[in-house]
Design brief:
Strand content: 15-25%
Radius of gyration: 16 Å
Distance between the termini: 29 Å
Largest sheet: 5 strands, parallel
Oligomer: single chain
Helix content: 25-40%
C-alpha cells in the first residue's frame, strides 16, 4: 500500500491539511514514526517532538504486545495478557525494564531541552501503523492528562478492530487504510527498514 514511510507521511499530511498554519505539535512514537512526523510537521508548518511509550512484551513472544507503559509509568494491560502466561510479577518486571528504556531514550533524544509541552496545543500523534494499538493507547492516555486543545491520532494503516480501541481516546482518528487481513505493519510497506537511535537523534537535532 505504501512505497515507504516517506510516501505514507506525505499522504497523511494531505489528510491532515485542515491543521496547516495552526502550529500543530506533531509527536512521533519512536522509532519508526520519527522520520514521518518530521515530514508531516514541515508540510503542516508545525512543531515536532517524540512521545515516549513502550510496549510490554508477551512472555517468550517479544513481538506480541500485551500492553504498554508511558513516561509517567501509567500502564495499559490488554484483556488477553493473562492468556499469554503473563503473571502480575512478570508484568511488573517487564514494565520496569521498559521504563528504564524510556528514561534512557529521553536522555539520548532530548538532552539539551525538555519535551515540548502539549498543553493547549493541537497535538497529532503519529505512528507508522497500528497492530494491537497498545503503544498508541498509552501515548493518547498520557497526552490527554496534559490537557491538549485537540488530540488527533494519525496512522497510515491499522486493523479495523484496533482503530475502535483508540477512537475513544482521541478527538479525531485519521487512518488511510484498514485492511481486514493484518499480520504486521511492515507487510503494507515496500521498503520498511528499522529506524535506529542515531537517526532519531539526528532528526531531533534538526
Amino acid at each position: 500500500m505504501f512505497r515507504d514511510r516517506n510516501e505514507a507521511a506525505s499522504r497523511l499530511a494531505e489528510k491532515l491539511k485542515d491543521y496547516q498554519g495552526k502550529n500543530p505539535l506533531i509527536l512521533a512514537i519512536p522509532r519508526g514514526a520519527v522520520p514521518m512526523a518530521q515530514i508531516i510537521a514541515k508540510k503542516l508548518g508545525g512543531e515536532f517532538d517524540v512521545v515516549l511509550v513502550r510496549k510490554l512484551r508477551a512472555p517468550h513472544q517479544p513481538e506480541l504486545a500485551i500492553g504498554s507503559v508511558d513516561e509517567s509509568g501509567w500502564t495499559y494491560i490488554a484483556d488477553y495478557a493473562a492468556s499469554t502466561g503473563a503473571s502480575k510479577d512478570y508484568i511488573e518486571s517487564e514494565k520496569q525494564e521498559q521504563l528504564r528504556t524510556i528514561h534512557k531514550r529521553r536522555a539520548q533524544y532530548t538532552p539539551i531541552r525538555p519535551p515540548i509541552n502539549p498543553a493547549g496545543r493541537i497535538v497529532i500523534v503519529v505512528d507508522d501503523g497500528l497492530a494491537t494499538g497498545a503503544t498508541m493507547i498509552s501515548a493518547l492516555h498520557g497526552l490527554r492528562a496534559r490537557k491538549p486543545a485537540q488530540l488527533i491520532c494519525a496512522v497510515p494503516v491499522s486493523p479495523p478492530d484496533t482503530l475502535v480501541k483508540v477512537e475513544d481516546l482521541a478527538d479525531e482518528v485519521v487512518c488511510l487504510e484498514t485492511p481486514e487481513f493484518f499480520q504486521a505493519v511492515g507487510q503494507f510497506y515496500g521498503h520498511f527498514p528499522q529506524v535506529e537511535d542515531d537517526e532519531v537523534i539526528e532528526i531531533l537535532k534538526q
